[in-house]
Amino acid sequence: MTALPREILICTIAGLLHDVRHVAVGASSPMPAAGAMLRRALDEDRRKVRLSILGSVEHNFFTNGSTELFDSAGQGRLDAFFLGGGQIDGMANVNLVGVGTYPQMSVRWPGSFGSAYLYFTVPRVILFREEHSPRVLVEKVDFISAPGISAPDTYRPGGPVALLTSKALFSFDSQRPGFRLESVHPGHSLPEIIEATGFTFDHDDTPPLTPEPDAATLSMLRGRVLDELSETYPAFAAQWRRDLAETIPHGASA
Amino acid sequence: MAEHLRALASLVRPGMSLALPVDYAGVSMAMTRPLIRHGAGDLHLVCVPTGGLQVDQLIGAGLVRSVETSAVSLGEAGGAPRFNDAVKKGGIRVMDATCPAIHAGLMAAQKGVPFMPMRGLIGSDILAQRADWQVIDNPLETGDSIAIIPAIHPDIAIFHVPMADRDGNVWIGRRRELAAMAYAATQTLVTVERIVDRSLLADETTAAGTLPALYVDAVAEAPRGAWPYGLWGEYATDTDEMVRYATAARTPEGFADYMAQEVCA
């Protein structure tokens, strides 16, 4: 079985979520949700992985209103969270506000949501943005919704650990500070990634390839996880099934 | 029904601050057109903690001076067109926040204290842009800086829930941010799907999720009053209508045409 690019991303996310007890994903984040659902399925016999999907009624066990997620993070009960970003820079600063000079920006995005708090309080924040281009991965963000690093005297149990795009996986070192290219997804190359990245990063001369999932993981993903996902993200799941239907018959008949 | 909604809207006066809930908590969309027809402008909106369709429409109608919010968007239907346009043109002042900071400000008001400390924020441009937010040294521990958020005291909170009883108690279920809004606001106006004859406080099951009438100034019946948003436990969001609005409101003219239609659920 050959994995689709999005399946490799989802399995990479599940890998980044090893050992989590409680992970939260944003309202319109089907791939992080799929990665978390896969983690939950893989760990089923060993631990209970709790998944909170913001704004979802089914995948939301909170009873104290929208403040409870943040309170639980402040208490150290939220292990992992995903953050996107209109712009992300080499210091892992995230911009969710807009392009240009604040406040009258030429492009205005919705706003910072909970980033300026969760980026500090959640130990494992995974930056996830499919678009890997110089307009997203910039040298310096136009507005810091949430800073990637903090001065030593700032209370900060949390922060970024990784950046995952459609082309590559990076780790983030808050001490150096900066990103390091961990692996290149199949079909992409180091020169292409350097070209598409607006900031400099550490890398091996020949970076490893992002691993593809094994057959057991892939069948769990296409079975149980895809079924679970379709309850919350029906459009995304349906498109995934269509793409599988297009690619699988050829492989199966070969 | 329309008469009652008009009566509620008439309590809003120019220059007031309004607290409005996040799209999934119970937005009183039924109040949006009555507020626009009433026409009290120069409003300051507090989004708890983010805004959407209602905020975009009040901005599009020219009633808004400023918005304190962690985000404004139409969710799956995309960006909020009238909000984005007003920001670009400098037509409104945005006080950019982060979700727990808005909760902290309301919590301070709920407790009757001047501010609430909160973690995070330090080093962000959100904090740098907010002259009203401060960073202090933790007085209990040296070498620990912490941000403080002043109490937020909205003049009026407006939201929509499934039911109220004859005594004016309203059932908010687990949407506790609606209670936080009501505690902090001077007045609270609630629209409901239905008014029930039994007391919500008489049964422990409903009493736990009930906001007592002490905090509620007016209630009006408005079936499907959150539409096109959904209401928890009642009905789902009408995504097609959200998209129809998002498309229409890309221009001021399209927005005006949309708002002129007598839409109903």
Q: Tell me the span between the first and last alpha carbons of chain B.
A: 15 Å
Give the overall silhouette of chain A: globular
Biggest interface goes to: A-B, 46 and 56 residues
- Indicate the structural class of chain A: alpha/beta
Full CATH superfamily name of the largest domain in chain B: Glutaconate Coenzyme A-transferase
Largest sheet of chain B: 9 strands, mixed
Strand order of the largest sheet of chain A: 2-1-3-8-10-11-12
**Which CATH top level class of chain A fits?**
Alpha Beta
Mean of the pLDDT scores of chain A?
Answer: 93
Task: Return Rg of chain B in Å.
Answer: 19 Å
Return residue spans of chain A where pLDDT drops below 50 for at least 5 consecutive residues: none
Order of helices and strands of chain B: HEHEHEHEHEHEEEEHEHEEHH
Supply Rg of chain A: 18 Å
β-sheet strand percentage of chain B? 15-25%
What does this protein look like?
Chain A: This is CoA synthetase. Chain A: InterPro entries: CoA_trans_fam_I, NagB/RpiA_transferase-like. Chain B: This is CoA synthetase. Chain B: It comes from Paracoccus maritimus. The complex is a heterodimer of chains A (254) and B (265). Chain A has helices spanning 5-16, 30-42, 67-74, 115-121, 190-196, 215-232, 234-253, and strands at residues 22-25, 50-53, 80-83, 87-89, 94-95, 98-99, 107-108, 124-128, 137-138, 160-164, 168-173, 178-184. Chain A has a 7-stranded mixed beta sheet, with helices on both faces. In chain A, α1 (5-16) packs across α2 (30-42) and α2 packs across α6 (215-232). With 254 residues, chain A is α/β, with parallel strands linked by helices. The mean pLDDT of chain A is 93. In chain A, a hairpin with a 4-residue loop joins β4 and β5 (94-95). Helix content of chain A is 33%, strand content 18%. With 265 residues, chain B is α/β, with parallel strands linked by helices. Chain B has 2 domains: 2-97 and 154-256, Glutaconate Coenzyme A-transferase, CATH 3.40.1080.10; 116-150, no CATH class. Chain B has 10 helices and 12 strands. In chain B, α3 (53-60) packs across α4 (81-89) and α5 (99-111) crosses α7. The model of chain B has no long low-confidence stretch (mean pLDDT 96). Chains A and B meet through α3 and α4 of A and α4, β4, α5, α6 and α7 of B.
